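Researcher: Structure for this, please.
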Amino acid sequence: MIFFHGTSKENWEKIKSEGILYGRRYVLNNDGSIKKEVDRCTYLTPDLEEAKQYGEVVLQVEYDPYSSKHNNYNPDSWQMRVYEPITIDKIKKL
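Model: Predicted structure, token format:
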């Protein structure tokens, strides 16, 4: 299935250097600084226009949510979290 992920140019460089799409979630302090990393996950959406709201770089991601239980996929939802790395060969920069 095809999904989309919006990110920054800086994060796109990190994705390419790491060779995987595998985001990070943080708990922030009141001043916006990072308190701690909660976990690693990637947000995906089936809606291209939605992905464009999250960064100047939009990635097209091939991902089968039925092949793994490491996601919270719901076919009626506008987004999902994937709790496993997605290899760079499944990603195309639009």
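Researcher: Any notable elements?
Model: The first strand starts at residue 2 and ends at 7. Helices lie at 9-18, 48-51.
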